[in-house]
Amino acid sequence: MSERPLPHRIAVANQKGGVGKTTTAISLAAALARGGHPTLLLDLDPQGNASTGLAIARDQRQAGTYELLAGNSPLIAHTRPTAVANLAIVPASPDLAGAEIELVSEPRREYRLAEALTSPRIDSSAFAYVIIDCPPSLALLTVNGLVAADSVLVPLQCEFFALEGLSQLTRTIELVRRRFNPRLSLAGILLTMHDRRNNLSDLVATDARSFFGEKVFETTIPRNIRLSEASSHGKPILDYDPRSPGALAYLRFTEELLQRQQPLPAQE
Ligand code: ADP
Ligand code: MG
Asked: Does residue 192's CB lie within 6 angstroms of at least one atom of ligand 1?
C-alpha cells in the first residue's frame, strides 16, 4: 500500500483509425518520461501498434492488457520496461482481440480497467502518468479506457472528413461522464498530420478551432515521415530523430499539455 497519489491517467481516443492516436500516445509518453515523470503506456488496441512501436517483441506480450482487464493480478506482473528510461508499457497481449466479446457478459464490464488501475492490490502509484492508447472504435475497450481516465486527448487528422464522427465521440464522452466517470474531462484536441503545402489541412485546422475554440491545442503536429519511420524502428521519435519537426512538435505539445494541467482543471 502506498500513500502516493494515483497517476494522472490520459486516454488517447478517436474511433477513426490512422489519425495519429498511437503515434501521439508513444510520443507523449516518451516526452513525459524524458521530462522525469515515471510513465506507463497502456496498449488497449488489439492491433498492438504501441507495443510494436516500442519494440516489445510478440513473445514478450504473453501477459498484458488482457490479463489486466481480467483482473486479480498485480499491475507489475504485466508491466515491461522499455528502452526509454522512466517509460514502462503494458503491451497488448494476443488475447486482447477477444476481450471485447468476452467482457460483454461480465459484471461491471465498463470498470475493468479503472478497477485494475486503482485497486490497492495493484499498485500503480509508482507512475506519475498513465497514457492509454485506445483502439479505433467506441466499443467496450475504448469505454474502459475512458472510464479509467482523468482526461481524454483526441487526435484529429488534418484531412477531409476529419470533423465527421467527432459528434459521435463527444456523445460517447458525455455518456461515460454521466453513467460511469463524472471526473472525465477533455484534455484537448490535437491537430495531427498537418501539411503546410495543402490548403485543406489549414481549412480543417481553422474549422476545428472555430468549432472547439480553446479546446484545440495551439501546437499542431506536422506531417513528418520521420514519425512513421520511428515506429517501424521501434523507437519513439525523441530517440529516433530528436531534431525532426515531428519530435519538436511533440515536445512542444507535451509542454502545452503540462501547462494546461496547472492548476488542475476545475471539475465541470
Ligand atoms: P492510429 O493509432 O490513430 O490508428 P497511428 O498513430 O498509428 O494512428 O498513425 C497512422 C499512420 O500514420 C502510422 O503509419 C503512423 O506512423 C503515421 N503517422 C502518424 N502521425 C504522423 C505524422 N504526423 N506524420 C506522418 N505520418 C504519421
Ligand atoms: Mg493506433
From this structure: yes
Listing DSSP states for 146-177 in one string gives HHH-SEEEEEEESSTTTTTTHHHHHHHHHHHH
Q: Which of 21, 23, 233 has most ligand 1 atoms within 8 Å of its beta carbon, as the pocket-test mutant?
A: 23
pTM of this prediction exceeds 0.85: yes
Atom of ligand 1 nearest to the CA of 45: 2
Nearest to 78 by CA among 108, 37, 123, 31: 123
188: its cell numbers: 484537448
- Profile the chain (268 residues) by mean pLDDT over runs of 10 residues: 74 97 98 97 97 94 91 82 96 93 92 87 81 97 97 94 88 97 97 94 93 96 98 97 98 97 58
Residue 96 identity (one-letter amino acid): L
Sheet containing strand 216-222, edge to edge, reads 80-81, 87-90, 39-43, 129-133, 8-12, 151-157, 185-194, 216-222
How far is Cα 96 from Cα 65, in angstroms, rounded to an integer? Answer: 7
